[in-house]
Amino acid sequence: MENTELIKYAAEAEKNAYAPYSNFSVGAALLGKNGKVYTGCNIENSSYGASNCAERTALFKAVSEGEREFDKIAIVSSSGDYTYPCGICRQVLSEFMPDGTVVLFSESDGIKEFKVSALLPEAFRL
Ligand code: THU
Hints:
This protein is 29% helix and 25% strand. By secondary structure, it is an alpha+beta fold. The chain is globular. The structure holds tetrahydrodeoxyuridine.
């Protein structure tokens, strides 16, 4: 699947973000090796630490549905600018798609791609 299409899925998922505390909505779309797309949004909580990022929402949805291998994940946000995955999400992405690609989008500057391994070199493993 083309990056532009995956970004559209992420933008659609961003509409479901529940972010009343930060007012920063994020959408993610994860492409499984089987060709299926799994989407996620950030879901905040009044107990802030209980909030979940869009990337992990998408990944946990996918894994819970039996998918374990992924090619790439697209991320968009209400900033309209490149939104890099947080440290926890990098670790979780690294678990399931160590050879995968992160696709970011800026409304003014277009698409950028990074390997997960470049965003989290020397990731922790057991
Ligand atoms: N957030 C994500 O969903 N993904 C990221 O990569 C960075 C941060 C969310 C968490 C929180 O709901 C809001 O953005 C502000 O930090």
